[in-house]
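Hi R.,

As promised on Friday, here is the backbone we talked about, encoded as structure tokens. Could you run it through your design pipeline when you get a chance and send me back a sequence?
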């Protein structure tokens, strides 16, 4: 039986949960929708497949950095913990809240998609897609509220079922593609962008792929609840990324075996169109059910992340102390309730595309900041125990930081409104930080005065 940490978190998790958390957090909206956008931007098969390989490599390079940080500072909360230790209170405060918003916004666009797909299965559902989204988040909240063990076991079940389902569809498409007649070319072919615009197109595509790999770091949010983090965290990160990358690349190869790139670009759901050519009318229902289950698994995994960010912020005085409360079974009930409520509110006010673009740039910036913490802590705290040390230091960490900066710049050029929103958020954070800092000082001064 796992021992309790001082704050009540249960140490019961291992490598199996970590891999399930990566699969559950990553595979979902990206593989269902992003291939169409990529095919429109990158109208060459080698680029279409290659961009997924690049995304997998970047995720692995990121894991190389984060694994060192997670086992060196084995606390709940993820990147907030590392950035605060490396750069101080304000950067930690800012990135902690950015990370929480990213997690909530990610779940919000997942809920939007769940509502859309669920409505296809039950068009007469009272309240429509929004009601379906609400029912899903309430169900997942109840699962997490029962305790850490039930949440972790259900994540293993959902992630395993999701991986097997995708692999089954990959086999169906690869085998069926050998006998399917060639799909007629659409009337309007994709136009190749001029050479001067290719870098911008690649930057936009790269940041979309980066976002489809987002969530590979989910296990580090629960490091404090891991029995042997120094061993299982690196294994979970690299093992989970490898499985996800294999599924992503094979799925896109399977799509190309059935549909030409131009048809993928003009399809809203390429996987549904590809399987329809092989399975007929039943394909639509099969893919829709798969989408609902997949997205529920994704949202389930997000509910591990965000409450633990609030837990860490609360423990350090950057949020109400109630958010650090933990039940005897390891559930973070106040943090869960706040997070679920925010997810619902955001899902009711935005569309998939708007939410996706809004968080993609923030997520890449947060990653770059986190990776740089490895280098800073190597200089400022060289004597900290490092059970896992980033391979290829300093060149591999520098490479993934540089890559992140380049695609941020390219995406910001292509989507300048994202930079405006980010700048406004940064400005708004300054007064909030000083107000909360003054509250922390008053609270810490009260015991001394008494």
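Update: got your reply. Pasting your designed sequence below so it's all in one thread:
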């Amino acid at each position: 039986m796992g021992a309790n940490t001082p704050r009540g978190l249960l140490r019961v998790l291992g490598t199996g949960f970590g891999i399930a958390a990566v699969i559950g957090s990553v595979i979902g909206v990206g593989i269902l929708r992003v291939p169409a956008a990529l095919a429109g931007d990158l109208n060459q098969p080698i680029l279409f497949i290659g961009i997924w390989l690049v995304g997998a490599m970047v995720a692995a390079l990121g894991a190389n950095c984060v694994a060192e940080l997670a086992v060196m500072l084995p606390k709940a909360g993820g990147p907030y913990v590392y950035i605060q230790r490396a750069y101080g209170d304000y950067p930690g405060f800012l990135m902690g809240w950015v990370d929480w918003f990213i997690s909530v916004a990610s779940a919000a666009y997942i809920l939007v998609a769940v509502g859309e797909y669920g409505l296809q299965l039950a068009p007469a559902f009272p309240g429509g897609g929004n009601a379906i989204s609400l029912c899903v988040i309430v169900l997942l909240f109840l699962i997490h509220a029962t305790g850490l063990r039930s949440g972790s076991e259900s994540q293993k079940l959902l992630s395993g079922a999701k991986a097997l389902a995708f692999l089954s569809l990959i086999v169906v498409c690869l085998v069926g593609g050998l006998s399917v007649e060639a799909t007629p070319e659409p009337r309007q072919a994709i136009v190749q962008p001029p050479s001067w615009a290719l870098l911008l197109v690649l930057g936009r595509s790269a940041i979309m792929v980066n976002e489809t790999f987002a969530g590979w770091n989910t296990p580090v949010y629960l490091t404090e609840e891991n029995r042997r983090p120094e061993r299982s965290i690196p294994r979970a990160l690299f093992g989970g990324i490898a499985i996800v990358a294999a599924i992503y690349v094979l799925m896109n190869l399977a799509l190309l075996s059935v549909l030409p790139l131009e048809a993928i670009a003009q399809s809203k759901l390429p996987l549904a169109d590809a399987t329809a050519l092989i399975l007929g009318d039943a394909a639509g229902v099969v893919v829709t059910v798969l989408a609902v289950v997949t997205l529920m698994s994704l949202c389930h995994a997000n509910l591990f992340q965000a409450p633990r960010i609030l837990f860490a912020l609360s423990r350090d005085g950057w949020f109400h102390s109630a958010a650090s409360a933990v039940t005897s079974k390891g559930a973070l009930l106040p943090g869960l309730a706040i997070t679920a409520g925010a997810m619902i509110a955001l899902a009711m006010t935005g569309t998939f595309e708007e939410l996706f673009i809004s968080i993609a740039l923030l997520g890449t910036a947060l990653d770059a900041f986190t990776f740089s913490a490895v280098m800073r802590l190597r200089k400022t705290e060289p004597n900290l125990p490092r059970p896992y040390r980033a391979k290829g230091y300093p060149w591999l960490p520098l490479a993934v930081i540089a890559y992140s900066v380049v695609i941020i710049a390219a995406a910001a050029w292509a989507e300048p409104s994202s930079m405006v929103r980010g700048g406004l958020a940064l400005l708004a954070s300054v007064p909030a930080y000083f107000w909360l800092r003054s509250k922390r000082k008053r609270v810490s001064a009260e015991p001394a005065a008494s």
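One thing I noticed while checking it: The radius of gyration is 22 Å.

Thanks again,
M.
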